Amino acid sequence: MLLYLAAAGVGRLGIVEMDRVDLSNLQRQVLFDTPSIGTLKAEAAKARLQSLNPHVKVEVYPTKLSAANALEILEPYPLVVDCSDNFPTRYLVNDACVLLDKPLVYGAIHQFEGQLSVFHHQGGPCYRCLFPSPPPAGTVPSCAEAGVFGVLPGVVGSLMAAEAIKILLGLGTLLSGKLLLYEALEPRFRILRLARKADCPVCGENPSVTTLQDYELLCGVSV
C-alpha cells in the first residue's frame, strides 16, 4: 500500500509502527528485504519509500498507537489508512477518525480472505456501525495463529491505496457504505451494503464513546 502511495506522489506519509522486521514478515511484505531484518519497520519503510520517490516526505512514529497519543499523531493528516492486524488498534483508529472527522480506509486479512471499506466519509458509516464492540478475548485467532496467504496483503493493500488516492483526488466511486470481500481460493469478489447506524456508539445520534480508550484488556491481546 505504501509503495503505491509513494509512487503516486502522495506528498506526505506518516507511518505508525513500533515493531521490528522479522524473517516471517518477508513471506507477505514486499516493502522489506532480508537486510531489513532486525531493523525498525517504520525506519526501514521510510528508507524504501524515499529511495522510490525522494520527493515524498515520510514521517515515522516508532511507537505504540494508544488513546494517549492517537489524536495528536493522526490529526495532521487528511485521511487515515488502517493496516493493523489486531482489534484493539482497529477500534482505536476508528474512534479517533470519528472524533477528528477524518475518512478511514480500512483493510483486513485472514487466511485466504480479505476485506476492505472506507469508513466515516461524508456521513457514511464507521467501523463500529459494522462491528459495534470488540470481540471477547480468545474468540478470534491472531494472524500468527491462523496464518495468512502470502499474496493477500498485496491484493488488499493495492485496493486500499486506490481508495486512498481516490479520496485525495476526489475521483470515482468509493467503498463508503460498502464492504468489499475477496476470497482468494474461489477466486471472487463480493460487495455487501452497509448503512450508518443511528445507535452506533461512536458516530450515532447519541454516542456513548466520546473519548478514546485502549482495548487490549477487552480483546485479551497485547499490541
Automatic annotation (TrEMBL):
It holds the Pfam family ThiF. It comes from the Bacteria. GO terms for cellular component: cytosol. Residues 2-202 form the THIF-type NAD/FAD binding fold domain. Keywords: ATP-binding, Nucleotide-binding, Nucleotidyltransferase, Transferase. SUPFAM superfamilies: Activating enzymes of the ubiquitin-like proteins. GO terms for molecular function: ATP binding; nucleotidyltransferase activity; sulfotransferase activity; thiosulfate-cyanide sulfurtransferase activity; ubiquitin-like modifier activating enzyme activity. This is Putative adenylyltransferase/sulfurtransferase MoeZ. It comes from Meiothermus luteus.
